[in-house]
TrEMBL record:
PROSITE patterns: HTH_HXLR (PS51118). PANTHER family: TRANSCRIPTIONAL REGULATOR, TRANSCRIPTIONAL REGULATOR, MARR FAMILY. This is Helix-turn-helix domain-containing protein. The keyword Transmembrane does not apply. InterPro entries: HTH_HxlR, WH-like_DNA-bd_sf, WH_DNA-bd_sf. The keyword Cytoplasm does not apply. Residues 13-117 form the HTH hxlR-type domain. Keywords: DNA-binding, Transcription, Transcription regulation. It comes from the Bacteria. GO terms for molecular function: DNA binding.
Amino acid sequence: MKKISEMESIRECSSNYILAVNDTINVIHGKWKAAIISSLLFGKKRYGELQKEIPKITPRMLSKELRDLEANGMVVRTVHDTIPVTVEYELTQSGYAFQHVLDVMLEWGLEHRKRIIGSTK
């Protein structure tokens, strides 16, 4: 994580702030990446386990999103020399560090849902 003074200087410059936010969005853009990362926060998973845990994701989309997350350094893919071949996915250090972002998203989502549902009554 960045030092507090460095974070304060980034917050004072809109272009640096926007750049950092865009970097984050570029890594997790799409409907499924946050769900995949969330699932992998609970430990290594095989492809089939991920597919069962994430409702409505197609096999093609899961494969694409896993490749993207791997390319962005969020997920590592391990192929075990077994018969049949076993492939496991797990989060990298950056992937686990992303839990802080997901926790904030969780809090915001719960509060937002409460406000919206409360305001429609």
